[in-house]
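Fold this complex.
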Amino acid sequence: MANKDDNDIDLNPIPDFPYDKDVVDREGWASQLGLVLAMAGNAVGLGNFLRFPALAARNGGGTFMIPYFIAFLLLGIPLMWIEWGIGRYGGKYGYSTSPGMFEKLWANPLSKYLGALGVFIPLAFVIFYTYIESWTLGYAVLSFAGQMPSIAGQSPDQAFTTMGNYLAAYQGTNNGLAWSGSIIGIIFFAITLFLNIFIISKGIAGGIERMAKIGMPLLILFAIIVGIRVLSLPGAMGGIAFVWNPDFSRITDGAVWLAAAGQIFFTLSLGTGSIQTFSSYLKETDDIVLTGLATSSMNEFCEVILGGSIAIPAATAFYGAGAATAIANSGTFNLGFQTMPAVFSGLPGGALFGGIWFTLLFFAGITSSLALSQPAMAFLQDELRMTRQKAAMVVGAIIFVAVLPIIMFLQYGYLDEFDFWSGEFLLLVFALIETILFFWIFGGRKAWNEIKQGQQIPLPRFFYPIMKYVVPIFIILILIKGIIDSLIPRLLSQKWVDLPGWSKATASFGERVSYEFGFHGRELVANAEIAAQSGYRWAARIEMIVLCAVIMALTGYAWNKYRRSERGGAHAQ
Amino acid sequence: MTLIIGTILMLWQATGATTGRAADVLMTAGGWVFMIGAWACILTLVIYTFNKVLRGGGK
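Structure:
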């Protein structure tokens, strides 16, 4: 007969703080599949279909997949598990956002303010992302309605210009006024914002999970339909070849490796704070190893298999293989909103396929924007004690007010500035902070055991040193590259230009490395375009600083008003 | 390691790829290998993980 004391061992000890009604009644996921689809929806975004294929084509085609998969293994999956682990760990103490999670990892007054970045970053991100998402909804409706401009009889170049003018009219950047914005663009933005707010107001299981269960299968179905149509076009295989034919001369290029690591980082939506919030709704014994891996693999399916088979092949079929390089270099927005509409406008049944294309982009967008909204929602609910409906209204109001200058000053780089800081740079900063907190301050062993808890598949031991050493080094390298290539030139209104006679092909390995750090082969010169937009760009930065300061102030307020009293109450019991 | 290097060299020779990729129109053998290899890896991972997730029950 077993000893009574042995039977009484509590494998899931109740946390001392603040295990109260809020913890017991917290929201949760209805199913593991729903959680995986919601997390995958968070990761799958516009970049999967627009950024990845162009990036692969520019960086060595098939050989790009070598650093890409290595980065997936050494950076993407481990960091995904780290974020899941932090989230589930914070969740068992009743925290759904990083201020509280960080405080549990590091008992220091500063930690909660560092954690406030995990509320600010996704909020700033979703402010401009919702606006871009609304373009996809607008274009989907206009495509289905046959309202996209006709390009009959136009050359590919003329068609590209026609679509560029149409996009400018949609955005209202060519209205002859000092500010941009069009009635139709604002209407579709309002509809998009309403849909987002309506869904998040329904909660985790009733809103976000339900949307993911509908949106993700439809997204994949639509991508398959569009992909089959695209690959049936004459010349489309030239685009596939452009994406996949290997260029082994690029494999020793450090910039390619960093581009691959950056793509893995951004495509999995790491560093946004939303993964932690989603995983905080898990139970302590729920698996995160398998679900994290399933989420990552679903994202790769959408990116590599579906994303790699649509945009570039379609553009190559329409514009010809000779234009493939220019298309790949034209940027995400041009590819999505100029090149692709032109391609579909030239096809029989183009209105239908164009509509399907933009609908799938809309699903990719809304599942991401819902995830990005959730940290702010959870912060207002958990820390400021708002009801879900009230929190949704507040989040909606913040997005609506904060997006106005983005819409009005779109052509002056306002959105670009938001994108750089909250959509790129700060994600890396936040990911580095959380990795150091979890594996270095909280403790590597404890972090490792926390991740392994409840595992449905074994977690190989070699991931421990990867999480502790390789992941932060990877992030630091991408961060340094970002500071040199983007942050410094941006702040100084400058740009990098290669020196005359410089060629990577003939440079030595040392010279190539020196080039990446800006010491060799290139120099900074004045960027007149950025300089002319300087005032607007600084306004965008100030808007973000104010938003961040307010969230940090609210964090301090919430801790003083609620968390301290709870702590006192818990001890009193 | 030798196997990996040998495979890479073989693929290199098979593709005949140069830095002037803009002129590439046809899929090379290396392109097929990389595409099919990447697709196979990802599909295997998706099938393996979702099979486990779905068999894991509702929660």
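Chain B has two helices and no strands.
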